[in-house]
Amino acid sequence: MVLNDLSAASIAARERGNSFYRAGNFNDAINAYKEAASLAPEDYAPLSNMSAVRFEMGRYPDAVEYAEKALQLLKSEPDDVPKKQKLYARIAKSLLYSLDFGKAELAKTAISRLDNSYSAEGTSVEALQSTIAGVKALWTSVPQEAQLRALVLDRLPRYKAHLLDCPEYYAVGHDEPSTVIDKPELQALPASQDDLSFLFCGSGDARNVFSTLLSLFQVPLVAKTSRFKKIHITILDLKPAALAKMIIIVDMLSRYSIMKFLKTKGHEDVLIVSSYVYCCQLLPPFVFEKMQEHIDHLIEALESGDDDPFPYLYVPPSSLRQVIRVLKQWKEPLSNHYSVPRARTFIRYKVKFNREQAEMYFGPNPRVPSKKDRKDFDAFGAIFADQDFIERREPRLGELYAAYESGDSVQMKDLEEYLDVTWKLNVTLLDSDHEATRNENLSNISEYYGSGCQAWSVNDGENPANLAEFDPVDMSDLFITDTPSGTVIKKMSVFFEGVTLGIIMLNEKLVIEAVVGEMADVMERLRYDAMDHRSLAPKDDEGIDPRQFPKKFDRIHMSNIPDYIGGPFTAFLSARPLLREQKQANMRFNNLLNPPMFDSHETFQAEYLLMPHEKQIAAHFAVVRERDPELSGLLDKMMPIPSFMQENYFIWNAVLEKPLSLGKRMRRQEFEAWIYGHLLKICLPYPRPLQSDRPVHAPLNLTMIFRLLERMSEVGYPAHWMSSILASICNGEIETKARAPRHIIVHRNDLSDTTSKKAMSVVPWRAEFTTLLSIWRRLLPFGVITPKHALVPLTEIVEYQVSFPIFREERLRLPHFTLVFWDTQCGQTPRDMRGLLMDEEEGDMFPSAKKTRNQGVHIVSAFRFVTHTRTASFWMRRDAVEDMKTGNWKLYIWRTDNWQAVTGAVDVSRDLRVKRSWLDVDEPQIPIS
Question: Which residue has the higher pLDDT, 268 or 774?
Fold first, then answer.
C-alpha cells in the first residue's frame, strides 16, 4: 500500500513537472521532477524528465548526466525501445551541441545504439552520424581556431559590396570637438585603475583626439600625478590620407614644442602654419612651403624605418605603407583642374550657399564669428593671418590688402590675381584615388589605375572634394568658444598651443597607435588577437612595444560610422567586446545621415536591431543608453524638432556581462522570429531611392547572422535553438512569423506579434549560406547538427572570380549590390526580382515563381569587387558551381535598393574562374587605399 502511495505521489509530481515544463517554468519543473525521483528512485522517468528539461535550458552536461542515470535504470531493456532511443539521441545531441570533445566516444556509442529509422524532433540518425564525422574532419583540417578566424576576417566581407572600391575621404569633421572623458568621469574610475585607453574610429581630422589630449593635460589627476602611468589612444580611419594629415599636424606641433623650448625666433609661426593646414582651403606661400618641408621630413623618417618620427606614435607596417604613399602624392604637382582661381570661385559660392541653406533650416548661427574673417572669406575664399605674420612672411600681401581696404575695386582685382598666382591649394584636403573615382566612370577609373595611379591626373569633371564642405570661419568657433572676437587663425593657434602642451605633459605616458582600416573589421581583429602588428617586437630597447597594447578601452568613439554599416547592430556586436568591463566604460556614436527618418530611439532601435526596448537591449548586448538630463526641451522653444533629432552623441555604457536568466530570454518562437527577421531583412531589404537627402542603408550580408548567433550563444541561448534555425536555412525552408520589411524603416508596430506562422523558401540563399556555415562552424561556440550533405569540407570551398564587361550605373558607392545566378531555362530575369524571391503574402506566389525560387536562382550577398578591372570574387561550395556549369546559367550584378540589374549577363560555365581553395595559403597583399 505504501509503495502504491509513493508511486501515485511520484506520478503526480511528474505530472506537475510536465505542466511546468510545457509552460516554460523550468525551475519549477526541475523541483517537481526531483520530488518524483525521490519518491520513486527506481523509476527512470523522472530522471529522463530532468534530462529533458536541462536539455531545453541549454545545460547539456546536466542533460547527459541525468540521461545516463536513467539508462542505468533501463539496463535490462533492449536498446531499440523508444524510451532508450530518446535518451541515446539526447546524449548524442547534447554532446554535439556543447562541443564536448572529451566525451566524443560516448557520443559515438550513443549514436551507434540508435535505430537508423529513429528521428528525434526531426534530427535523423544520418544527420547525427554525418555531423560527428564532419566535426572531426573540420577540427582536424583547422586545428587552430585563431587561424580560421584570421582567414574569415581576411577573406569574407561583412557588408554587401560597393562597386567603387575606393572609399571617400572626409577631410574635415562636422561635430563639435569634445573630449571623450572629463574630470568627473576620470575621478569616478576605480582607484586601482592606473591606465587609460581610448579608441577613435573614423577619426577624420582628429578633432576629438586633439580635444581629448587637451582635456587630459588640463586635469591634474592625469597630467601631474603618477596615478595613470599609461595613456593609450588608438586612432582608426578608413583613409590613409586622414592619418597622414594628422601626422603632419603632430609633426608641426612637436617642432613647435622644441622651438619654443629653445626660444627659436619665429617659433610662434609654427602654430599659424598648423592652423592653416588644419582648417583652410588655401595656403599662403610660406605655409605651403613649410608644409612641404614637414612632408619631406616625414617621408624620410618613415621610410628609413630606423626611428619613429615621435616617441609616442606607432604606425603599423601595413598602414605605414599607405600613409607614405599619400604623403608622396601630396608632393606631386596638381593639374589645372585644381587651380587656385577655379577653386576660389567654387569655394566662395558653395560655402556661402551651404551656410544660407543651414540658416534657412536651423536659423542663424548663435555664435558670432569674426566679421573680418567672414568678409574676407566671402570675398576671396581665403583666410588671412594677423598683420604681424603677414609683415614677416608676406609683406606684398599686406600692401595689396591695405589697398583693397581703401575701397578701390581695381585693388581688389590685384589682390585676387596675387592670390591666384602665389597661394596654393591645401593638398591635405585631397585624396588622389578618391578624386579619380568620384565621377563613377569605369573607363576613366580603369585608365587611372592603368597609369599606375598617377596622382592628380584628373583634368575635368566635378570640382574637387572637401574644398567647400566646411567653412573655416564657423569651424574655428567650434574649437575656441570663449573668444568670439578672435580670428580663425588666432583661435586655432590657441587651441593647438594647448594640444602641444598636452602632448608634452603626457609624453612619457602617451602612446598613439594610428591604424588604417575599417571600423568593425579592426574591432574584431582586436578582439581576437588578429592584428598582425600587435605581435611584433619593438624596433629597439627604447621603442614602442605593440605587444603591450590594450585590448579593452575606457571609451570608444565611432563618429557616425554606424550610419553606413548597420547602425547599433554592428556597433554593439563589434564594439561592446572591446569595452573595459566596468560601468564607467562607454561607446558613443551619433546619427548624422538620416535623423529625420526616426521619431524616437525606439524606432531607431527597431530599424537596426529589430529590438526597440532598451531593457531587452541591455540584457542581450550588455549596454545601456545614458540620458542627457539637460537635453529635454532644449530645442522645443526654437523649433518643433523630435527629441531624437535634438541629441548629439548617443552614449551607451557597459553593463555587466552575464548569461540571461530564463525570465529574460525570449521564448523560443519569439527568438526564432527575431533571428529570421534579421535574415529576411538582409536578404530582402525594402526598396529605397538611389538619391535621398536622408538615406537609410541596408549594407549587411549573411555573415552577420553568424556573428549575431555567436553573441546569442554568449548570453545563454540554447545551442539546439540556434542549430535548429541554421538547419532549417540549410534545408531551404523556414517557418516563422517574421516577414521581409514592409517599409524602408522598420517601426515598432512592424514587430508586433500579429502575423501567422508561414513556411517560406530560402533556397535562393542556400548555396551561399551553407558555404558560410561550412566555414563558420569551427568558430561558433556551439555545435550545429545539419542534414547530411548540407555542409562541405573546407577543401571543397573555392574562391571564384568573374570580370564583367563595361557598364554604366550611378550611385556605385552604395552598399547595395549582390550577385544573382540565373538559370535561363526559367526564362528571362524578372522585372520584380524582390517579388520573385519573396515566398510570402506580398511576393509572387504563382507556381512558376515557386519553381524558380527552388531551382533557378542563387544569390550571393558577400562578394568583393575590384572597380578598375570590374572583377567580382566570392567564396562558394564547389558542387553548387559545378552543378550550374552543367546547365545554362548566367551571372549578373544586381542592386538591392531599386532591385534592378546593373550589368549584362556573363556565362557561368565560360567566364567563371577558380582562384584558390579555402585552405590555400594567401599571398601577401598591400591595399592601395
Answer: 774
